[in-house]
Design brief:
Aminopeptidase, 6-stranded mixed sheet, alpha/beta, binds coenzyme A, GNAT family N-acetyltransferase
């Protein structure tokens, strides 16, 4: 299930975010996590199964009614088991009436997860 990020998950969240091609540098990663902690337009969720955090998905509000998935990562040992798709689907279900789009890194995967996910 998707759970909302909180400060106590910071280390695990940074570890998961570091799988994004855009988050390979520690300095950039620190800025990114800070933005999720302080900017209300940035929202971060973790995928929890039992007590394990296996994935992460982060969005930025583009305008009213539009959010963009800017980060999505699954821990390597649990890929190809549907977690990435489930995160996108659950996110969309949490946001009825909102258009969920991808960015240049996430669009191709998001498109696999459903017709209403589009590039912007
Ligand atoms: C992308 C990612 C989140 C998918 O997570 P996952 O739990 O393995 O996803 P699912 O099991 O739901 O789906 C796997 C399918 O997505 C495909 N896929 C993986 N990355 C993809 C991408 N960037 N674009 C399109 N399809 C992609 C896989 O090839 C696989 O396809 P198949 O079922 O036909 O074999 C995971 O591969 C990951 O963490 N990658 C590193 C982080 C990253 O680069 N994120 C940005 C790209 S979205």
């Amino acid at each position: 299930m998707l759970i909302r990020f909180k400060k106590s998950y910071e280390k695990i969240a940074m570890g998961l975010l570091s799988f994004m091609p855009t988050e390979k540098e520690l300095k950039k990663l620190r800025c990114t996590i800070k933005e999720y902690e302080t900017n209300e337009n940035w929202q971060l969720y973790l995928w929890r199964e039992d007590d394990d955090m296996l994935g992460i998905i982060g969005t930025v509000k583009q305008e009213d009614g539009v959010v963009q998935i800017q980060h999505i990562c699954v821990t390597p040992s649990h890929r190809h088991a549907g977690i990435g798709s489930k995160m996108v689907q659950e996110l969309r279900a949490m946001m009825p009436g909102v258009t969920v789009c991808g960015n240049e890194y996430t669009t191709s995967f998001c498109q696999k997860c459903g017709d209403t996910v589009q590039n912007m």
